[in-house]
What does this fold into?
Amino acid sequence: MRLSILLILITSMLFSCTNINPSNNAEDVTNLTPEKAPITSCCKPTEKVSLTNIPSESIFMLDDTFKTQHNTDFQLSTLKGKPTVIGMIFTNCTYACPRLTSDIKNISKNMGIRKDKVNFVLISFDTERDNPKQLKKFANEMGLDSEWVLLHGTEETVRTLSVMLNVQFEKDADGNFSHSNLVSVLDKNGVLKYQKEGLEAEHKETNSTLLKLIL
It folds into this structure.
């Protein structure tokens, strides 16, 4: 399954974590399939979810098992039934990732009483250092409530998911990462519907998209 996914998706340019979008200009990426996108408790522990009628471009087709910040097994198909906001980060990032996380927190805040109808997920690039204990520490430091899911996976699994979400990253000699900064919105079946690129961006359209997907 993973090989089939990788064969139909491509990676391109990288954005540096230490030199990211200095003008804070953001770019909308709306209604895109992964091939066209340019290049930064919500769920119970993993249980088998039927993938009947799930589109082939859904991230739920990646059936590998992740670990949450609570060290529980988790499959992406567990997110089925709610729209999902996803950010890809690493916790040793001192600039872009905390800002991207704050952007998603603001999206959650702006959903008001409807935020419980949305999954909020962070997935780490750093498969070596961002174990569940470290992810839980980051969640506490960022003030993320119990509804957020932070995930650790294998290097191959994380790379495959990043390709599906158009998120580019590369590990440097210090063990840190250059990466794009994308907030991704998926529908109830795990299909990419909207993306916003940039830090401290205006997310009015992100919230509008989520409201439409909830209905």
Summary: The helical segments are 2-7, 96-110, 132-141, 155-164, 204-214. The radius of gyration is 16 Å.
